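From the shared-data thread, chain only:
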Amino acid sequence: MMMKAFGASQFLPAGHPDCFAECYLTVPEPGDRDLQVHVRAVSVNPVDCKVRASIQGRLMMPKILGWDVAGVVSAVGTQVTLFQPGDEIYYAGSIARPGGNSEYHVVDERIVGHKPKRLSFEESAALPLTTITAWESLFERLHISPEPRSNRATLLIIGGAGGVGSMAMQLANYAGVRVIATASREVSRKWCLQLGAAHCINHRNDLKAELDALGIKAVDYILCLNDTNYYWQAMADVIKPQGSICAVVSTKEAPDLNVLKNKSVTFAWEFMFTKALHGTADMISQHRLLNRVAELVDQGLIKSTMTEHLGPLSAANLAKAHGRLESGKMVGKLVLSGVGT
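Structure, as tokens:
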């Protein structure tokens, strides 16, 4: 049985007519712990653009991108225990396997959650990758308590209006953390305040001066979702003694860890593909956290961050989506429906 998929055989600009191509591939069969999924919607993330940009030369087989999927389980592997055919699910998948920009996809059940009941497939597809990144950043890397209203700390989120920031603001607010987000455009500032930020400051200005103007001398936690090198010294200046910093953007030059020493500051990286990529013993935690967030969504405590829907999955629409992300002006998440849906 064949399926339609959309991939990149070489790196071309998003505006090039051959940036993505339609192709036909054999429908993948599930492994022992895998789910075979009928893809109903996908979301596009910066990692898609980075992987596309990393393609060297021309590939014999096109690279299928897409690490945010909502769909329906169509078949299960012999050792699957968490799902059954017909279940509606959402997940980010593994960067070590082909992405979900196709009619069918396979994914390990341990990194999959039950889709929020109150959301459409499109609204659900906007959530997994950013939800996992935000959850792990806040509750595993920074060690903030995930219990509702259990914290009285302050968190600075650098780059609040993007996909991860949009989820991190909501999750932190749910946990009782006072959030100060950064944004440079008025539309981004309004989005941050709408999603629970107590304050929104301009990351194009001096962060310490911006916080001082609010009467905030230092913060307990920082989640940096922008250029880690650029904000390194600023973060060292505004973090409290014994505070914690988490970053998601790779550095171009090794940061000077010594600037954190006198404050005994903890620094951590977050890469949401780590657990699936290395088959860690705790990778099922992503299944659990996605289920937990689906419950919060269904309770009306967390909302989808989908802000743009570009129609069905196609080569042209995928290229358009990549162009939107590469513009650096996205607020929230961009979504495509499945093939022919």
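The domain at 131-269 is CATH 3.40.50.720 (Rossmann fold).
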